[in-house]
User: Fold these one by one.
Assistant:
Number 1:
Amino acid sequence: MLASLLLLAQAPALGPVIPAGASTTYMAAALAVEDRLHAKDFTGAEKASKLLPKKEIVIQWDDSKVPQAQRGEFAASRDKALDRWKGFTGATITFGTKSPDVKFSFEQVLPTPPDSGLPSGSALFWSEAANEPRLEVVMGLKRGLPPEPIALQNIHNEVAHAMGSYFGLESSPSPSQFMGKTDLNYTEESQPTVMEIALAKNLTGVTQTLRDAIHSKTVLLPTRPKLFIEPKSINLGTVLQGDPEPFQVQIGNNGNAPLAVNFTPDCGCITSARTQVIQPGATFVLDGSYDTMLTTGEIRHRLTVTSNDPENNVVPIPIAVHVKPTYRFLLPKGDIVLLPEEGTSLDAYLVLSEGSDIVPQSFELAGMEGKATFVPWKGKLADPAMNEPEADRAGYKVTIKLDGKMPVPGRAPITLWANTSSKRFPTVQTNFFVQRGIVALPMDLYMGDIGATPRKFSFIVSGPSKSFKVTKVTTDWPHVTFETYPNSEETEYRVIASYDGKAPKGPVTGTVWVETDDPKQPKIRVPIKATVR
Amino acid sequence: MRLWPLAIAACGAAMGFWRGPSDVQVLILSGDTNGNLAPCGCTKPMSGGIKRRVRAAKQLSLSGHTTLLDNGNLVAGTGRQDQLKAQTMAEALGAAGWNAINVGPADARLGLGLLLSLHSLSQNKFVSSALRSSEVNQYVVSGPFMVLALSSSPQQVAAPLGQRTRSVAETLQDLVGQSEQADLAPILLLQGSQEEARSLATQFPALRLVQYRGAGIAPAEPEFVGNTLLVTPGSDGKNILRLEYADGKFRGYSVVNLGPQFEDDPQAARQYKSYLNRVSEERLLENLARTQTVAYAGTQSCGSCHSKTLAQWSHTEHAHALKTLDREGHARDPECLPCHVVGLQSTKGFVSRKETPRLANVGCESCHGSSVAHSKNPWKIHLPKVGESTCQSCHTVNTSPGFNFQTYWARIKH
């Protein structure tokens, strides 16, 4: 027992734990120092530590290829980014050409990488040679496709990203944050996130600990946390819309040092722990969930695991789920109801999936006077919108009686609304339309932006309850002429509007009058909307 | 030794070029916008929107060598606002040079009259390969591609349009055969699932690419079934895909998230503004269907007792929720307002700032429900405590993608 205690006392201390979010470049440099400290090669450790970020940094800013007039504003954008990093890390930054740690320079346009459609906005080159800067950054003076002059915000953002990389932070795909990296001509200044600031401070501490160990010739055991994830992807299968669907991910640490892990879901619909530290040999079970309430159908999302495993620091876990809707409203005769003057009735079906807790308490109609009554129902119905053929279904049959009061002929939307006993679905609703007489579809002749080129547009005049004739189509806007084509039953006419391309510039306000032989609707008004540019 | 001087040297002495040989065709894919014409704007950074999409497509195109395709389902519903959205989207895609737009089942549900309008506005870019009529294109040829467009259930498209249709197999047999004779690479825009795309790729191996219906995010990597590439940009218009086609092969697959790094395209922005004007002019807000409910007391009434909470509320984003809509130009948008005021869908709810100022912004009753009974009998009738699910009725995946209950609750805790 005593012997083991003595052995324990003599065992070297573990090196500082590198936080999750550190770059592989930083981790490799830190581990190289630890390896040498472990081997008691303090001279080698001192040499290896040259690859770690310094506290007193010399930057070489070579703007010789930047037009003279722009150099001042480029430098101002650069300094804004540098000042932020100085604040986060406590580093001092001077400019010079003698033994620079970081060098920035410019070229006209950088090459396009093989798997990208865009020229690189910048290129970062790391060097381990003593006579070269640790990091060299080349920025394109033009970027995007086709290349446009670099926006000043990109100078700020590229400097912010490059210096973050120098300090050991991993890049992020989100260009709005400091470690974001994009090749596009981004015109907003990136902002540091709280995580980035904390990480920079943390890494500064790790670097200092290693330097102190070299200075005091302390033997350290290299920290090599090793990430193990199971499963590598999550498929939640088919679940019913409603409650959060739980999932678990086992994260293990097969290494010798604490594993720091960050979990970043790509959507607010996924809940999970945000950070975790897992001791060597231990495992952590992440209890996450996907909220099925929000969207139905096939869903794909991603949970990204970032860790301080030097060999596996960013691992995306794809999440797949098929969310089956808890309820569906079905209107077997379509969602357009013809409304005679004496009123009409129609049936709607509130179809519930197995496991649904929806029990309707009352149905209401909005948009038109009427009544809705309901009874439990079982039967066969198709669900065309969900691409489902006729099948056995259960739920409630809602009989809707509309009293026929409609101030003018046309088409009006109606909302059918159920108050239910379900906590997750206190109300459920659907919309349908009632139509009386002859209507223009769409209700206006919208031509959008038009110019000097003749173009054709069309609309339909529809009166599905009985045949009618279009006798004439006229307009008060002189730049359009019309042709009409009836369907075989003469219940629908296609009206082709030919614009002559000669209208003066400005907004168009005009009206089309479709004249019919229906005594109740001798004229259908169709507004013209367009802008001539 | 550092590698970069070699890399740069390899690209020639002149640095002012970018790769663009004439035999490279860029393919840009969008689809399943489902009516998300603009990022909601209430939380940032949001993704998506037609203004960014057009800008991104222009930036990522190779002039004269780009094919732009959309898999349809421009909107999700059939109401008047959906019609206006679909028209705006069709106009924007047509003006921005999209070569083909699939007629999705949701587009077909808008009816034949609207589809014809969309087809005209898009400069005749709609495609539906299985329709037996010639209302829209049967296919489109662009660069080396023959673009076909289908729904896995063609009847879903044909029925609402009152049209007849061929089967998927018959259509593909015919058109894929034609593409081979014309030495064109057939691409299929499919309103169908990933599984259905796999099945068609197995059945018709000559298909070079199938874009299937989007769901959530776009996969980080494309999938191959034989030599057929299966891709989707995901749903709701948040991403587009960019690929290159050269020497008979696809390469450079990239998912482009339409984040704020893309400025608004001026032309698409003008078209979008015109859409908002139409929403306002047609008084869609005033014509919103409302249900009969109990009355609301108004946020200030709550403050007469809960003065500390009211003071705290006044410093939250909820208290200024309408300003967000003003800023984004959506103050009269009936799709946005329900989450920015109290009781918009009720006959007793918010009407306008002038008429119902006490119900403007996200107030107490937005989450806790009507407090009239409680205000009359505060000791006996209590309002329910609400939780995460109440927040999520507005903070949805699309409107508030970064929503996290713990952090958001901390901002309004009371």
Number 2:
Amino acid sequence: MLSRIEEIVLLTVCELDKQAYGVPIRERAEQLTGKKLSIGAVYVPLDRMASRGFLTSYESEPTLERGGRRKRFYRITRKGLRALREIQQLNDTLQALVPDSARLGAN
Amino acid sequence: MDARTGSLPAWVTCCLFWITPPEYREAVIGDFEEAFSDRRTRGFGRLKSSLWLTSELIHSGPHLAYQTVQHFWKRRTTMMTSDSATRNQSYLAVIGFVALMPAATLLASGVMQTFFGETAISETVFSTLHPAIVLGGLMIALTLNAIPLFRIEYHADSVALSGTITLKGRWRNAMVVVGGCLFLSAIFLYLCLENFRIVETHLPTV
């Protein structure tokens, strides 16, 4: 089971595809959630999901705009995609159980 | 321009270097560098950018420190399963066997006295071996050998806190732990039998 922040970060990595590293992941997650995320806070779910096999990571060549430091890029694995699908199915099942009168926007 | 010179103040780089796990150090410092440079180029003043940087560092600090601790424990666990650790576990088993000796001697002399009526040896042993040496040896043997034998892991997520206890197949350490437990139970059984004798009582009949 993934936590909410893990799910958001996983979806962001999926969306960014080959450009998924710390800075864009954080910016996109902030846009999606509307909440402020620190740089360090992004690395906690990234590291946890990499250790659980949902993500793989590799380092790029050193870049001048980062003071000669490498970027760590993340890619989603098959296991990660499966986890996202399972969450989607669970959400759909749970949504289907909610009575129509209780749905948002229903009067 | 030196490839490693960025716009990030030295104290920030230094702080990040110490609180970030080595695996992510370069990436995290690079991210700070990129985000800081981006703010400067977007027209934020030096003071405003520095304030943002300090705030970002304060907010990121606990997360990065938590990761560093986790990586440290992960490395320590990996070390425990490597070849050199296997050698260390054998040393621990040997130390355990030696630490069990006082208890083994005490119990052997007790058995000899009980079943063969040999009092000379048991009296010498009882007067020489202080209980602290016997119990201390047992505790040392059990503690040193239980650490490589058991592995406790826990995982906390938003739903629940779950844990697993793994028993590893390190038979030397297992022998010491089992032996230590047997000796400890025998000593406590003896203490109970010696101190709490069954006394026959006659209740008055009404």
